[in-house]
Amino acid sequence: ARQLAPALISEIAVNPGLDKRFQDTFLAAEQSLFAEIIERAVARGELAGPVDPAMAHLLVLGSLASALFIVNLPVDDAMVTDLATAATAGITALADRHHSAPGGLAEPR
Fold it and tell me: What is the total count of domains within the chain?
């Protein structure tokens, strides 16, 4: 992944057709999965309400991609657990911010 992903990102940047295909297939599938996970968490009462799946995806993917490709850290199970915990806290905070006001009343949209 450390060798393939940077090359793919570079090619996506200069190839609009590949960019669209990547967005419409890989990223769309991942964001759909995130939407399902978020819906289940809301149904279980673990989130105050839905959050944008693209934002949730960014919180998870951005941290991992930075560790792998920018900071060049070794990614092990402990790091993945820590990143997942941090992303979960961020997603929970977003849900709370978007769906709760002081006193627990829903914010008007």
Answer: 1
Token pair, residue 48, equals 């105050």
| The residue count for the chain | 109
Report the SS3 class of residue 36: helix
pTM: 0.76
Is the Cβ–Cβ distance between 95 and 48 less than 8 Å?
yes
* Residue 109 within any structural domain of the chain: no
pLDDT digits (tens, 9 = 90+) for 28-49: 999 999 999 999 999 999 999 9
The domain in which residue 72 lies consists of 4-104
| 72 in Cβ contact with 20 (< 8 Å) | no
At 94, the pLDDT band (50, 70, 90 cuts) reads very high
Helices 53-65 and 28-43: crossing angle in degrees, nearest 10, is: 120
Q: Does the residue 48 lie in any domain?
A: yes
